[in-house]
Design goal:
Radius of gyration: 19 Å
Number of strands: 2
Number of helices: 4
Helix content: 25-40%
Order of helices and strands: HEHHHE
Largest sheet: 2 strands, antiparallel
Shape: globular
Strand content: 5-15%
Length: 111
């Protein structure tokens, strides 16, 4: 069933790991393809950030700090200041230039 965001924060199975690399011979991945634009910013983080810093505070820090490293440092600091009851890992990635990405050429055997 579906639950609300506030229910998810206190759900008894909230920290249950449903998929992990190395836990099974095959891993079912979710893959989304999105168009990137210069100026887009991505936040990759552990639940140590999510559990300690509200979405509003996270968004404010992401907007205030233009340098990705300074932004990541500020997010970790806020999580630790708010209690830091779990490990806190944060990666901030900015899209800074357009690039043409080509698929690698398939290897061909010589017969």
């Amino acid at each position: 069933g579906l639950i609300t965001a506030s229910e998810a924060n206190s759900h008894p199975d909230g920290n249950l790991i449903t998929r992990a690399v190395g836990a099974a011979p095959n891993l079912r991945l979710e893959c989304n393809v999105e168009a990137l634009e210069v100026g887009d910013r991505f936040l990759l983080c552990t639940d140590g950030l999510i559990d300690e810093v509200s979405e509003e505070d996270t968004a404010e820090i992401l907007w205030r700090h233009t340098d990705p490293q300074e932004c990541a440092d500020a997010l970790v600091a806020r999580a630790l200041d708010n209690g830091g009851s779990d490990n806190v890992t944060v990666i901030v990635v900015d899209v800074v230039a357009e690039a043409v990405v080509q698929a690698p050429h398939a290897a061909q055997s010589e017969s």
